[in-house]
Amino acid sequence: xxxxxxxxxxxxxxxxxxxxxxxxxxxxxxxxxxxxxxxxxxxxxxxxxxxxxxxxxxxxxxxxxxxxxxxxxxxxxxxxxxxxxxxxxxxxxxxxxxxxxxxxxxxxxxxxxxxxxxxxxxxxxxxxxxxxxxxxxxxxxxxxxxxxxxxxxxxxxxxxxxxxxxxxxxxxxxxxxxxxxxxxxxxxxxxxxxxxxxxxxxxxxxxxxxxxxxxxxxxxxxxxxxxxxxxxxxxxxxxxxxxxxxxxxxxxxxxxxxxxxxxxxxxxxxxxxxxxxxxxxxxxxxxxxxxxxxxxxxxxxxxxxxxxxxxxxxxxxxxxxxxxxxxxxxxxxxxxxxxxxxxxxxxxxxxxxxxxxxxxxxxxxxxxxxx
Length: 371
Prior knowledge:
mainly alpha, 17 helices
């Protein structure tokens, strides 16, 4: 559930070069299968751990498959031989890159099957295994294709961690209610400052503490934004740029919605489809990225309550993001597509519209009655 796949959610952002697309697609399917094994809580630990550790070898076996998961993920696992066949047709450089990331990720997943996320260091380590390594792997694939320079590991890691932490924050309620048993990745070092048990955050009587804990988690995630902006700013290929940038904008938008929002513990918090469509359609260069990050940070900033325990730290990180966007020198070149004056008044206009309709209906009804 939580592997940081920042590719494939948005088909319009998929790399258009045939070689890059094929390599990334196979990389995705291999890691998606690995994650399906990790995510299936019905698999006994003594069965799951050896599979995770050996998964990088299974991709070379055209006959190997393991039935687990549900719906489309079960289909993937039952027919994994198709993935292995496609993998074996890749060039050796691509195979080596995918095998290396799969081996490291499988070992990391196995480690955290038997280990709770206690400290913030544990949290960063877990996110590195399931998402940072995705960033490193993609950077290697882009470099091997000749389309991009090899990005520093630290920046590639931040690209994955920012998305992963956003998912973990947003999915609190879904994860805590997971059947047959939940698996949570909020670090004890953070949540124990607010409640005695992690599940206590979902209870109404703990709403104030829950929101403070949530804001602490969001503040932690924001530390990766500047690295993400640096990573994206040097990408040359337009398709790869969109492929990387769109999910990052969706992440900062999601965090802006989640921050100080008790609904994270009550239901689903996500960006509206119309805004998502705009992000997908209009993200084409770094000007668009800087605008989006600046605007979403502007949405988050007024929500910071000075009485929140982490208010000073949160404000500092938001202002650092805004400074990075302003220092780019492009913010005045284009109007925002996220915050528009017309959108600010849309709800008021709708109310006025229905009031007018009600008056007209009342008038027509009285006229009809008089006749």
